[in-house]
Predict the structure.
Amino acid sequence: MNLLEYAIKMELDGVDYYNNQAELNKDNELYNVFKEMAKDEMAAEFGVRKEEY
């Protein structure tokens, strides 16, 4: 695994983590916080991939 692949994996792991935390907190205000963080991670992941081309 090269550095770029590792960085992409870390971003996707972050998305999974934040989505899981959102599900655990779907009955309180943290749900929206974790969903926003997951969206931010996805935006960062796609930004890395976009520059790869």
Summary: The two ends are 18 Å apart (CA to CA).
